[in-house]
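Changelog note: in this version the structure field was regenerated for every chain. One regenerated record is shown below for reference.
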Amino acid sequence: MLEAIETFHWGAIFQIILIDILLGGDNAVVIALACRNLPPRQRIRGILWGTAGAVLLRILLIAFALVLLDIPFLKALGCLLLVWIGIKLLAPEEDAHGNIAGGTTVLSAIKTIILADFAMSLDNVIAIAGAAQNTQADHQLYYVIFGLCVSVPIIVWGSTLVLKLIDRFPVAVTLGAGLLGWIAGGMLITDIFIVERWGQPAPLLKMAVELAGALLVVAAGKWLAARRRRNRSSEEEPASTS
């Protein structure tokens, strides 16, 4: 048992849990909205079964993604997606949960949760698959499952606390976005197309590309967020003077 614990890739586990917490806020919102019309006694059933279905769906999608990452250029595509997701994390758009309908039965609420989670899973799937790629190939899915099992209770039952902590320590969001950029750089430099032509990258080169990815996401996200704040301010000024 101790040997198994010692061989764990704790860095990958930490990354998976952090990604789930940062990108899983939408899941908590969807679960709450989908179950809002249920009687109080049925809400906990809707939450538990809906969450279980969403987690199973996530595991299946990530298992599929781990296999697909061995196809040339897919890691490069995943890199672009993670860069976009990281920038969006720092410069979020208007909330888009108003179209989540609340179910009137447990089954309809579960269906809503699973369908909505499927539609929103791309960012989590790509990010977690990228974090798991640094572990042993035979154990990647186990890391994913472990990370999900640890993070789901945090997302579902501790989402309010997590949001308060993020509001109090905004640097957590910046670090999370930087982590996505770091993973994106690692995915790009280890794309099978690049590896087959130039071989496995040297550790120093890989770290440099990962660092460049993190800095790119943070810089672009901060710039876009500042630009949107300026635009909102300029739009509000004429309205206040009229």
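Spot check on this record: The first helix runs from residue 2 to 6. Confidence is low (pLDDT under 50) at residues 1-6.
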